[in-house]
Amino acid sequence: MPETPEIPRPSAAELNEQIRRLVRAGLSTAVAEEYQRLVVAWAEAMRAEQELAA
Question: What pTM was computed for the model?
């Protein structure tokens, strides 16, 4: 069975920048879901980076 290529995930720093851009633009209802998704992804990236550093 062929291996599934791993999809590159953005780093915590990249996700943090995306979150900051959304906040600067204003959290309208239209971007609230994207904000929420980014915060969850950022938290996961932070955990993964901390595990690598340990």
Answer: 0.57
Q: Exposed/middle/buried for 14, CB within 10 Å: 0-12, 13-18, 19+?
A: middle
Residue pair 12/42 in contact by the 8 Å Cβ criterion: yes
Contact 52, 9 (CB under 8 A): no
Q: What is the SS3 assignment for 38?
A: helix
1-54 per-position pLDDT tens digit:
566 667 788 898 998 898 888 888 876 777 778 888 889 999 999 999 888 887
Q: Which residues of 16-31 are buried (b: 16+ CB within 10 A; e: fewer)?
A: bebbeebeeeeeeeee
